[in-house]
């Protein structure tokens, strides 16, 4: 909500000017003292214009979602997926975490999907299902390869990512380390009608890739929230 700040400085200046323009006082012998008439119309015009300008300047941009839930991912293999008690103590056995906006829905990942492309978890905005975040993992990776090699390998099992890269207007990649020295590759792809943020790291002999995707209209509306989701992903536990 925009905050309207009453323009006290301007009113004070106007009042001083008005005081200077008062008519000379009538001597005490007059039956009815003459009171100066304040120029109400200009003052109201100034006040209205100032309030309007203040409202524009203090209008707040779209904010983050009111709250988030932390998702604890276990990156279990397809063979162990959905076993007894599989969801009973995810926090204790979590290998990675990321934030999920309140109101987003979880899409249950099948064993077949987990076994073929490594998708481990996925959440989406029920108002626009293509606005989503998800994580994939691949076993057998001790360390990160060069950034372009990693991205190309991710695209091998993701046709939509292949198309996004092929038609991208821009693709930016960089390396970042967290406070524990863990290395992450981050990618930002601005494609045709779609925006994607990707964050990749290696830990526990696995490669983890976290994706945040949104159509361009939703990206323009929710960019701050989507960037928060992207930045919230990290691996946990011993490396």
UniProtKB/TrEMBL annotation:
Regions annotated as coiled coil: none
Cellular component, GO, one term: extrinsic component of membrane
GO terms of biological process kind: photosynthesis
Superkingdom, natural source: Eukaryota
GO molecular function per UniProt: calcium ion binding
Family matches, as Gene3D superfamilies: Mog1/PsbP, alpha/beta/alpha sandwich (3.40.1000.10)
Domain PsbP C-terminal: 95-234
PANTHER family: PTHR31407, THYLAKOID LUMENAL 19 KDA PROTEIN, CHLOROPLASTIC
Protein name per Swiss-Prot or TrEMBL: PsbP C-terminal domain-containing protein
